[in-house]
Design brief:
By secondary structure, the protein is of the alpha+beta class. It is built from 17 helices and 16 strands. This is Phosphatidylserine/phosphatidylglycerophosphate/ cardiolipin synthase family protein.
Length: 483
């Protein structure tokens, strides 16, 4: 990435005017699988009506209900997309290899984050949930044990057999507890158009409207996050009784149940109050009063009692409508301060700022290792990843291909770690709404390395420089820069 001159500069510049819908491998969601080809789960007429309704909600309804949010997000898109084209065409040799003295994981680094007004740390415990085998049984336990409330926000609430199974569980519990489900309008609408890779039961028929299905015969409250300027809310956050939260990269559907490699984390302790507040704000804003709902006093969440083995956690957001780019900014600081190691696993690695910072770390001798999917859910992003791999390998980094789709979004820089919903692309860093946690506890960082990185390095195949040769990588990288 970032060779100069860029072969396809004009193509990249032209992409500035494209809407976000066409610019995100993740936004295309599970419907964009490369191989094997997927069958359409809804008939063309029904699919067309669904997308038409979604487009109406993203434009007309969003402008009426969320005028302030729409205006702010529009300005953000108009600024950040051209900026990415400019950054991507600066010769890498002319970009200063900036470093900071504060090493990630140290008290000095945490003090730096405080000085730069990042969200302060709150106490919480972490339990890592790897793949569907780790997450869905925990989801089952939390659904069954909830006594007051179940709040679910995902990017995609699919309409396959797994999603219907969990819809039925939530509908059943809505007789006893408050159940609220929030999902992204465009993300789910596009996902509903195609079937998963693995076949559902032969007698299964997908519901054409999951909002109607969730409401039918139940007390489940359902809202969809609107998409002004086709900006997505990519957050995945589940909160139970305001005492337990789960967040990370997984949506509700078959891909996440048994097809993709992914990561969630269960959080307990006072940090859950912060996460419950995040859900509450998003829920209120996506009701019938839109932006006006945020003028009312927010609900105060009493922090759960401190837990004995809790650690300081920072709740980080990308929320461009209010100028928050905490995930990107903290990642760049950690990369600039890294002295020993940078471990990354991410399905979409195309943000030029992050690539430059990782490249600089590798060039100054940091042990940089990056895991990418062998075959992701977007052909363009796969090719863009290849261009990123070439740039980093040339700088001395080690790149790996995980044997199947890895959807994990996790990074370790020395003794600091972050994970959540954010990809390393321009959408997650600058445009979409995202949610991550970050922490510097030595024992927990090493546990994450043992749980995720060590096994995945062992399972993955090393990418060599010759593997990155492609006739289309320049074009793909120009496109991926806008995704």
């Amino acid at each position: 990435m970032l060779p100069f001159p860029r072969t396809f500069f004009l193509c990249g510049a032209a992409l500035v005017i494209l809407p976000s819908l066409s610019s995100c491998g993740s936004l295309a969601g599970p419907s964009a699988q490369n191989s094997p080809p997927k069958t359409v789960s809804l008939d063309p007429m029904m699919a067309g009506k669904s997308l038409a309704k979604t487009t109406f909600r993203a434009t007309v309804l969003a402008a009426v209900r969320q005028p302030v949010t729409s205006a702010r997000q529009g300005l953000s898109v108009l600024w950040n997309r051209p900026r990415e084209v400019v950054v991507g065409n600066i010769p890498a040799e002319l970009v200063p290899l900036e470093t900071i003295s504060q090493q990630p994981g140290t008290r000095a680094f945490e003090d730096l984050l405080d000085e730069q007004d990042f969200p302060g740390p709150v106490n919480g415990t972490l339990k890592w949930l790897v793949d569907g085998d780790g997450f869905f049984p925990e989801f089952d336990r939390q659904i069954a044990s909830a006594r007051k409330s179940i709040n679910v926000q995902v990017y995609i609430f699919d309409n396959d057999d797994i999603a219907v199974r969990y819809a039925d569980k939530l509908k059943k519990r809505s007789k006893d507890v408050d159940v609220r489900v929030l999902y992204d309008d465009f993300g789910s609408a596009t996902a509903h158009l195609s079937s998963p890779i693995t076949a559902p039961p032969k007698d299964f028929s997908p519901p054409p409207d999951m909002r109607a299905y969730l409401r039918d015969g139940s007390a489940v409250q359902v809202r969809m996050t609107l998409n002004p300027w086709l900006v997505a809310d990519h957050t995945k956050l589940l909160v139970f009784d305001d005492r337990t939260a789960i967040l990370g990269g997984m949506n509700i559907g078959r891909e996440y149940y048994n097809e993709w490699h992914d990561l969630m984390v269960r959080v307990e302790g006072p940090a859950v109050a912060e996460l419950a507040s995040v859900f509450s704000k998003t829920w209120r804003k996506n009701g019938k009063f839109g932006d006006l709902a945020l003028l009312s006093a927010p609900k105060a969440f009493r922090k759960p009692s401190p837990v004995g083995n809790g650690i300081p956690l920072r709740i980080l957001r990308t929320e461009p409508g209010i100028g928050k780019h905490e995930i990107r900014d903290s990642i760049l600081l950690a990369l600039k301060g890294a002295k020993k190691r940078v471990y990354i696993e991410n399905p979409y690695f195309a943000n030029d700022e992050v690539v430059l910072a990782v490249r600089a770390a590798a060039m100054r001798g940091v042990d940089v290792r990056v895991i990418l999917p062998a075959e992701g859910d977007s052909a363009i992003m796969d090719a863009g990843n290849l261009a990123t791999a070439r740039t980093l390998i040339e700088a001395g980094a080690r790149l790996y291909r995980y044997p199947r789709m890895t959807h994990m979004k996790v990074m370790v820089c020395d003794g600091w770690a972050t994970m959540g919903s954010a990809n390393l692309d321009v959408l997650s860093m600058r445009i979409n709404r995202e949610l991550n946690i970050a922490f510097s506890d030595e024992a927990e960082v090493e546990k994450l390395v043992r749980t995720v990185f060590n096994p995945d390095f062992a399972r993955s195949r090393r990418i060599r420089l010759k593997d990155t040769e492609s006739q289309t990588s320049g074009f793909a990288e120009a496109v991926a820069d806008q995704l």
